[in-house]
Design brief:
It is a single chain. With about 110 residues, the chain is mostly helical. The chain has one domain. The chain contains four helices and no strands. The chain is flat, with a radius of gyration of 15 Å. The relative contact order is 0.17.
């Protein structure tokens, strides 16, 4: 269950990062509420995952899912640039996530 909680926590991190961007600095009510609710859910699920997963593994994978997910949402929905260097950076993050999973011990 810890890995399930961690993956959902990472996906919620993507949602709260995107909704924070859409909240225009917390000046729009609905995206601001979505940000706060999904942030709370993300942190709660991360905490549950950390009950049995190592700190370094859980935190790295959580932030990695959030970073790559936010990168993809930015490209898809916000028209952010797709450059070779940004793609390489995302691939390096994914490589780090895989390495943490393989070396995590749980």
């Amino acid at each position: 269950m810890a890995w399930f909680f961690l993956i959902i926590a990472g996906l919620l991190e993507v949602v709260w990062a995107y909704s924070m961007k859409k909240s225009a600095g917390f000046t729009l009510l609905v995206p601001s509420i979505v940000t706060l609710v999904t942030m709370l859910g993300s942190f709660a699920l991360l905490a549950l995952a950390m009950r049995s997963l190592p700190l370094g593994t859980a935190y790295t994978i959580w932030t990695g899912i959030g970073a790559v997910g936010a990168f993809l949402l930015g490209i898809t929905f916000l028209g952010e640039a797709v450059t070779p260097l940004r793609l390489i950076a995302a691939l390096l993050i994914i490589s780090g996530i895989v390495a943490m999973k393989l070396g995590g011990g749980n």
